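Archive record
______________

***
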Amino acid sequence: MRKVAIAIVIILARVIYSAYWFYLAPALPIIGVEFRVGKALLGLVPLIFIVGAAAFQVPAGIIASHLGNARTAGLGLLTMAITGLLVPSALTSMRC
């Protein structure tokens, strides 16, 4: 039963991670207007997201080897939840 719960949490985390892509795509035109950025430069935003995610794969592997996979996954989910909660408040404060 524990393995099923872990699998469900991991799948849920991947779904939430994928949902961030749905937040990013509609925001690109707004970002372009707000910061007066062209479409070519806006195309780099998803690239930077992917490069940032890839850059943290090695440190995450090192952390996982020290803390264990389950603790590292929990730490990653906690970090993702906290930063996900901060993004809407940051966008709200930018508009004021």
In short: The chain is about 90% helix and 0% strand.
